[in-house]
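HUMAN: Forgive my ignorance: could you write out one protein's sequence and backbone structure tokens?

ASSISTANT:
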Amino acid sequence: MATKQTGPNRRRLILRLETLLEKQVAEMERGTLDQGPDKEIALLGTLARTLEKLIELDEKQKPAKANKTSGTEMTELRKKLADRIRVLESSRA
């Protein structure tokens, strides 16, 4: 019974973390965070690694065919975050 709850709970947590990550990046873009840029980037890195780990755990619970899509989604998310961080760094320079 606990196994049935783990999948949906993990998926909800992944969605919440994705939302938090997007919000954090948006606040960095607006310059509304109180911490310095180094701390903000470190926080984004931690959030991204946590999200990646949760997605990996979620993928292990899915059939092999579904894993290809999730891997593609994570690659796209990494690229999107990297692009946004580069834009932020270049705008602060």
The chain has three helices and no strands. The first helix runs from residue 2 to 30. The helical segments are 2-30, 37-61, 64-92.
